[in-house]
Amino acid sequence: MTVAASDALRPAAALRGSLTVPSDKSISHRALICAALANGKSRISLREPGEDVWSTIGALNSLGASLSAVRDGNAVVIEVAGGGSPGAIAQLGPGIADCGNSGTSMRLLTGVAASGSGQATLVGDESLSRRPMARVAEPLRQMGAEIVLTNGRAPIIVRGRRPLRPAHVELQVASAQLVGAMSFAALAANGTTSVTVPGVVRDHTERMLRALGTDIQRSTDTDGLSTITINGPSALRSFDIHVPGDFSSASAWLIAGALHADAAITIDDVGLNPTRTALVKVLQAMGARVRLNEVYSDDTGEPIGAIHVRGGEPLKAVTLTGTDIAPLIDELPLLAVAMAGADGTSVVRGAGELRVKESDRISAIGAAMTSAGAHFEELPDGWRIRRGTPQDAQITTHGDHRIAMALAVAAWAGVARSVELDDPDCVAVSYPSFWSDARSIGALA
Ligand code: S3P
Fold this sequence. Notes:
With about 450 residues, the chain is α/β, with parallel strands linked by helices. The protein is built from twelve helices and 22 strands.
């Protein structure tokens, strides 16, 4: 089922049930890339992949990889021929790769193409073409990569060359996409590359590369500065995995459940990587009843399990700053909704990165929450927010999936009196089954 732009979303009577969410987007991108670079045939099982993941599949094929998709119920099995030979990783390119709306596809593939064969051109949609790309080109150039940007943005032209030089790079932004791009490039460099990051970012690249045979380590100092070291060159072995649910998609139900007076929701088969689950601690600090139940770790070292949330507890305000931000980066629009349903004034600072996501998420969530009735003060790098009187809100999503889902949750949880989204279909970027899952727990009549 879908929701039309003219459909008003309204407070739900109750939110109850169990569901699964689409496979983790971050892990999916990395698994697809690793499989294309590996020696031998891999198999990746994805539950309900969103448009961003399809962008990576299409882009890899455009660069000469061989990925095919077969539907199996609500899963899609991707078979990847693998292009590496024993002792070496594949070279991708030449070609023109369309990354759609997906910043992660574009930045990771820039790192891959840097050591590719021939010229790769990476393009994206209107939103992606506005996003900053010097942050990925600069550190890769320190490894000898040849990259041409268009006014600091996409289209990106990468002229592949091998071997790249190992380098010691200090990133200016705490971005897992950049760590991923550098790590993929470092697979084809002779020697040790190190990447220092101002914060703790998701570590899926490291877990996966380590499991596939690369010598890659992370250390974090007491100030929260992380250093990732990669010893190249490194070949990757082929693999067969099922990618668990995406914690960031599950977060919609956590916030909805935490805010609603009559809610009991379980999300099964979700990735519980501790660099992703910071939201659970924040919600617990706000007074919510949220519980993780880790069941097992998969072959790539990713912890997997269930999350349970129950509603009915009053939430209290919270302040998030500095190193709190990177591990919550995709959950902050949803957290704005939780904050608008809490007692007291909540504050977010140090989140300027939100301005260069799929939309300027500080101003987009500000306009949306104000229209929903909350008191929202926009700051250069965050916001102050407190509860107001719920209103009938007409929301401009800017085509941003996370703004759309956050405001749907605001309606179901009663933070808004009703919500109309200008583009409900944009949820498919990460979560194509969002509306049918909403119906399954009673959010939609
Ligand atoms: C991602 C990293 C994050 C996140 C994005 C996915 C990844 O971006 O916002 O949705 O898979 O590496 P940054 O780490 O660049 O902030």
